[in-house]
Design goal:
archaeoglobus fulgidus dsm 4304 fold, 8-stranded mixed β-sheet, 5 helices, alpha+beta, 8 strands
Length: 227
C-alpha cells in the first residue's frame, strides 16, 4: 500500500469519530489555543517547519502561555492530506503546554475538506479536544464556490455541498474579506462562528488566537533560520 492510500484509509476511519455538536457548555470554555505553522528550507535543502501554540483566556483575551516546536518535515505535500505533515509538530507542541486548552483554533480547515478531515478535525480527534478551523483563503471542494456574505460584521453564508454544510464564509469586519470557518470536531458550526467573532477586534479580521500564533511562527522562523 502506498503512503497516499494509507492516509486515505486513516481519514476514512477517523471520519466516523467526527462530532458536529457541542461537546461542552460554552461557559466551560475558559481557555482557547491558537495554532499555526510556518515552513522554510534550511542550508542543507531540508524542509523544516515550526509550530506555535498560543493559549489565551477566553474572557480577557490575555495570553496565558506560548510554546513552539520545530522539526524536519518528512511527509511531502499532497492536497487533502496536509494534516499528516503538520500533526506530528502540533502534537509535540501541545505536549509542551503547561495549561490544557479547553478549545483549539487552527489556522486552516476542518470539516471544509473533501473527506471532512482538515487539520482542525484530525487534530481534534487525536487531542480529544473540540476545535475550530479558521482559514484565510478558500479551499474549494468539489468545484463549489462560496457566496459573499453581506457587508457587515457577523454576516455569513453557508458553504453547502450536496446538501450538507461544510463551513461558512464569515465576514468578521465590515469592508474586509471574509474568513472561512469550519467545525473541527466536538463543536457546532453555530458555536464555532460565535467563538470566532468573540475573538475579533479592530486590529484584524483574523481571530486573535490564530493571529497571534501566526505572528509567533514568523518570529520563530526568522530566529531559527539564522541558526
Amino acid at each position: 500500500m502506498d503512503r497516499e492510500q494509507e492516509f486515505l484509509e486513516i481519514q476514512n476511519n477517523l471520519r466516523e469519530k467526527i462530532v458536529l455538536r457541542d461537546s461542552f457548555e460554552k461557559s466551560e470554555i475558559r481557555t482557547v489555543a491558537g495554532v499555526d505553522l510556518a515552513y522554510w528550507t534550511d542550508e542543507n535543502g531540508s524542509e523544516r517547519a515550526v509550530c506555535c501554540i498560543v493559549v489565551l483566556d477566553y474572557k480577557t483575551h490575555e495570553v496565558i502561555e506560548k510554546k513552539q516546536y520545530s522539526d524536519v518535515i518528512t511527509v511531502p505535500y499532497v492536497a487533502g492530506f496536509l494534516a499528516f505533515r503538520e500533526l506530528p509538530l502540533v502534537l509535540k507542541t501541545a505536549q509542551m503546554l503547561e495549561n490544557s486548552p479547553d478549545l483549539y483554533m487552527f489556522d486552516g480547515n476542518g470539516y471544509l475538506h473533501p473527506r471532512h478531515m482538515g487539520i482542525a478535525t484530525h487534530a481534534s480527534i487525536v487531542l480529544k479536544k473540540p476545535s475550530i478551523g479558521v482559514a484565510k483563503t478558500y479551499y474549494k471542494v468539489r468545484n463549489t464556490d462560496y457566496r459573499q456574505p453581506e457587508n457587515f460584521s457577523g454576516a455569513f453564508t453557508d458553504i453547502i455541498i450536496d446538501g450538507e454544510v461544510y463551513g461558512r464564509a464569515l465576514r468578521t469586519i465590515e469592508n474586509v474579506k471574509p474568513v472561512f470557518v469550519s467545525v473541527g470536531s466536538g463543536i457546532s458550526i453555530e458555536t464555532a462562528t460565535e467563538t470566532v467573532l468573540d475573538f475579533v477586534d479592530s486590529g484584524s479580521h483574523i481571530p486573535i488566537p490564530t493571529r497571534l500564533a501566526d505572528l509567533e511562527t514568523h518570529v520563530a522562523r526568522g530566529f531559527l533560520c539564522k541558526k
